[in-house]
Amino acid sequence: AWGHDNAFLGDLTALQGVARYRSLIEAYSALYPDAIRKAFTSRYPPSRLLRRIFEADDAPLLEALIDLHRPLAIEASLLCHAVECRADRCVGLALARAKGGALAEQRGIRIDYPAVFRA
Q1: pLDDT tens digit sequence for 60-89
Q2: What's the N-to-C CA distance of the chain in angstroms?
């Protein structure tokens, strides 16, 4: 039996709906329909992808995730990691989308701070 990388399949569930991954998901579904069906019965959080997105400074992918998973929760420590990685485009996008409208749905991003920093 051919094994499937569960982490990869979990990432695909969070990327379902992102245009640039559509053909990959379709091809994988055609080759391994049972594996995709099983993986897609669960929903993995998009936050599992954020570290790698920030390390690559992949702002278009971050924007796609924001649009799909609004409001996208980002831990403050992960945003600090993005700054340390010099992910200028992602940090700029995250901060701009975090301070958008009054409603969380309008903002697109919710920055989660540790309880110590909450008033």
Answers
A1: 999 999 999 888 999 999 999 999 999 999
A2: 54
For residues 22 and 11, give the distance between their C-alpha atoms in angstroms, rounded to a whole number.
13
Phi/psi of residue 112, nearest 5 degrees: -95, 120
Q: Around Cβ 107, how many Cβ atoms within 10 Å?
A: 19
Check pLDDT > 60 for residue 56: yes
User: CB-based contacts of 23: which residues, under 8 Å, 6+ apart?
Assistant: none
Give how far Cα 107 sits from Cα of 13, 18, 97, Å.
23, 19, 5
**Amino acid at the residue 50:** L
